[in-house]
Specification:
The structure holds 2 protein chains of 2 kinds. Chain A is an all-alpha fold. In chain A, about 80% of the residues lie in helices and about 0% in strands. Chain A starts with a helix and ends in a 5-residue tail after the last helix. Chain B is built from 8 helices and 9 strands. Classes of the chains: A mainly alpha, B alpha/beta.
Chain lengths: ~290, ~260
């Protein structure tokens, strides 16, 4: 079972790498052939392949170039150096996590309100949905500028953008989750003459945990997106987003790709950690596995 | 000295549900008196309002007409007093709590202190013969065992009145027989008042002191049959002539209810 899935993953990975190398030659060839002709160099296909896999500023770098750059920028600099991806990644992670916690608290509180107060149910939910229809790329610079004007800079404005994105799945999931208890379980609470807080802590909250973790997994990933988007507007000098931006300013495609890879590894790790926490909680709550 | 009021007293109780398809007359003109120590079965075909009547007594529904008293006070006051224990059709255990945790749930809510919780949960579990299963989660138990836990949960806070909505309805006949016998003994020991909804004639005949036969559309009482069986009963009693006669009377009552439609 494990072996066959490992084989499948390896096969797909090999296929992607194969396509990638091919695409790298194809996409970089125009620039190279242009150069050969200007310099009147004799060229053949072999030379073209060799050159397109080792360009300084390729349109699509080859995988080994990215790996080399990753190795260099992850391990060859001190982690406090501005040239270290560990440094930039750390900054992005910290605003991701702060934003995720803020979004989580906000989302859970809103869901509790929506489930318990009929007026909120009717009035707030449409606004919450509307809030997510605004493209975050348009809002992010304004948030940074407005908060900067009142003296908030650095981590917090980015965390706000993360929170703005990540509270949404949590509200939607938790409204569903807090409403998930069986009517019979609710009737049972009524026959015990349970208070509202008792009903919440002993029934609604534990019943909602599967929904909570499902929302958390979505939220933490988009929190990271929010943090990176928050680092894009000029002004941010550190973080993966800033790294992406400077990379595109100076045509450093390899640098962009390594930052992207680091971002996706961080996202995968965060989601994995959430799943791990979910397993622990479910086990304590008597789950089957 | 004041007389002890009947445990349940209903006169001309009516319940009309307002639905999208217009009003539905669920319960009509119910007169009923249940006294302390009675074991009352409500029997009738689906839709005859037997569960609804039970929910009215439990204040899970409100009557739209008539007078209903539980222990001489309104059903709502009785509910706020936690005067009754309710057992649902399905065990309705909380899946994230162990057997022990489920038994302590009502006690936690009612603010019983920790040591007492421990003692009462143990006692209740012994009453349903499940000592040793404290640490199990509901999914680790069979359907019959889950339903026994659910009965034990209703016993932990010592209510004098038990309201049971087809508690054995979803179980197979063998388990059901066992639980019937077991529960009859439990009732004998504790002398609680029980209102028991069922659609099984043998179950009603075996367990009850009084059988209330109901008919549907609108739900009303056709007949109240006093049991002629002795109080001490084992499952063997079902082979006796008295038992068969009693079953026949119930069946006749049910048939009379059906001749309306």
């Amino acid at each position: 079972m494990l072996e066959s899935s490992l084989a499948a993953i390896t096969a797909i990975l090999a296929f992607i790498v194969f396509i990638w190398y091919g695409a790298s030659v194809y996409l970089n060839s125009d620039v190279l052939i242009d150069k050969y002709e200007r310099q009147k160099t004799e060229w053949n296909f072999q030379l073209l392949v060799k050159d397109s896999w080792s360009m300084g500023r390729p349109i699509l770098p080859a995988p080994h170039q990215i790996l080399e750059d990753l190795k260099k920028s992850l391990f060859d600099h001190k982690i406090t150096s501005k040239r270290s991806l560990v440094y930039h990644g750390g900054i992005t992670i910290s605003s991701t996590l702060v934003g995720f916690v803020m979004g989580g608290v906000l989302g859970i509180l809103l869901a509790i309100g929506i489930v318990h107060v009929p007026t909120l149910n009717k009035s707030v939910l449409p606004w919450i949905i509307a809030s997510q229809t605004i493209p975050i790329l348009a809002v992010a610079p304004m948030i940074i500028v407005v908060l900067g004007a009142i003296g908030l800079t650095g981590l917090l404005p980015k965390a706000f953008i993360s929170a703005y994105l990540s509270f949404f799945p949590i509200v939607i999931g938790m409204v569903k989750g807090l409403r998930s208890p069986d009517p019979m379980h609710l009737d049972l609470m009524k026959t015990y003459n349970a208070t509202q807080p008792q009903k919440f802590w002993k029934l609604r909250w534990p019943a909602s945990t599967p929904y909570l973790f499902a929302s958390f997994k979505v939220s933490i990933a988009i929190s990271l997106v929010g943090a990176i988007v928050g680092e894009l507007p000029a002004g941010a000098r550190a973080g993966l987003g800033a790294r992406l931006l400077t990379g595109s300013y100076y045509g450093q495609t390899v640098q962009i790709w390594s930052a992207l890879i680091v971002a996706s590894v961080i996202a995968a790790t965060l989601v994995f950690l959430m799943s791990f926490m979910e397993k622990i909680v479910q086990k304590r709550m008597g789950a089957l596995t | 000295m004041k007389d002890i009021p009947p445990v349940v007293e209903a006169s001309k109780v009516d319940l009309i549900f307002q639905t999208a398809d217009g009003p539905v007359h669920a319960i009509s003109d119910i007169d009923l008196e249940i006294n302390k120590g009675d074991f009352i079965s409500l029997i009738g075909p689906s839709g005859c309002g037997k569960t609804t009547l039970l929910r009215l007594i439990a204040d899970l529904e409100k009557p739209t007409g008539g007078m209903l008293r539980v222990n001489g006070i309104s059903p709502e006051e009785a509910r706020l007093n936690r005067d009754y224990g309710y057992v649902f059709q399905s065990p309705a255990l909380y899946p994230w709590r162990t057997v022990d945790g489920n038994l302590k749930l009502p006690l936690e809510i009612m603010g019983v202190d920790k040591n007492d919780q421990e003692k009462r949960a143990r006692e209740a579990l012994e009453m349903v013969d499940l000592a040793g299963f404290e640490k199990k989660f509901p999914w680790q138990l069979s359907g019959g065992m889950q339903q026994r836990v659910s009965i034990a949960r209703a016993l932990t806070f010592h209510p004098d009145l038990l309201l049971m909505d087809e508690p054995f309805g979803a179980l197979d006949e063998i388990v059901r027989d066992q639980l019937n016998e077991h529960f009859h003994r439990l009732w004998e020991q504790t002398q609680k008042t029980v209102v028991f909804v069922t659609h099984s004639i043998p179950e009603a005949a075996y367990l009850s002191t009084k059988i209330v036969v109901m008919s549907p559309r609108p739900g009303k009482i056709i007949e109240v049959i006093e049991s002629t069986l002795p109080e001490k009963r084992t499952l063997d009693i079902r082979e006796t002539k008295e038992f068969l006669e009693l079953s026949q009377r119930i069946r006749k009552g049910l048939r009379a209810g059906h001749s309306y439609d």
